[in-house]
Amino acid sequence: MSQSHEILFKTLADPTRRAIFERLCRDGDQTVAALTARAGVSQPAVSKHLGVLKQAGLVRDRHEGRNTHYSAELGALAPLIDWTNQMAGFWQSRFDNLEDLLKRMDQ
Amino acid sequence: MSQSHEILFKTLADPTRRAIFERLCRDGDQTVAALTARAGVSQPAVSKHLGVLKQAGLVRDRHEGRNTHYSAELGALAPLIDWTNQMAGFWQSRFDNLEDLLKRMDQ
DNA sequence: TTTTCCAATAGCCAGCGAGTTATCGATTGT
DNA sequence: ACAATCGATAACTCGCTGGCTATTGGAAAA
To answer: Hey, are the CB atoms on B25 and A80 less than 8 Å from each other?
Structure first.
């Protein structure tokens, strides 16, 4: 279940791509031109990043005339949150087991 | 503040490396040999991954005779959690602004 | 002390991926 | 119809990184 954190980690590992996603989270709907203006890389590079983000389900695109607007899909972060919770859960679980053991040794 | 999610994303993007970290979270303290046995890659590869994980603060090492034990440093995930919360926060904040606007238009 | 074992380092290679420029398709404005 | 603009695609380069084998440094066992 929820093996999909794989693609999220890979997608968000790149700083430029993550910056684009962050900007969409902060400021909402943006055209490719607007994103390119602040990305520090060329328009084709931005388009490529947006393609990867879309593939990962992190953004949606909306065509409006000759402009394309992108927006963040916040729900897509869920598997990432699940994963960290799971790691924390493993940790806690091992801690509980240790507690049990100590309790049993104590009595 | 907390720009350190950068290194976390990069470190956890690799599946082999993430699997090693997950194993340390699940099962706690492990020797390099034990980790290598299940990693599907060579011992030097595992050592390199452990080095990267250590650099990111995700694991600790403990020397015991000629064995080296590694363990997960769960607290290191905090910047990752902070980042996701921040993204969620941006989202919520924009939503609130929209609500305010609608309220003002309504009255 | 010699041999064996564990883990780290060195050195190398191959593939991937992020960047570039050039171009194309589509839509809008003249 | 023609020009201009927007964004995606093509084709290519180049650096990084994850993998390997071989070797080294230490610590335990013989």
So the answer is: no
pLDDT digits (tens, 9 = 90+) for A59-83: 999 999 999 999 999 999 999 999 9
Picking from B93, B101, B57, the residue whose alpha carbon sits closest to that of residue B75 is: B57
Note the pLDDT tens digit of each residue in B47-103. 999 999 999 999 999 999 999 999 999 999 999 999 999 998 887 887 767 666 676
ipTM: 0.91
Whether B5 and B79 have beta carbons less than 8 Å apart is answered as yes
> CB of residue B32 closer than 7 A to nucleic acid strand C?
yes
Smallest CA–CA distance from B19 into chain A, residue: A6
Q: Show the domains of chain A with their CATH numbers.
A: 3-106 (1.10.10.10)
In this structure, is the CB of residue B40 within 7 Å of any atom belonging to strand C? Answer: no
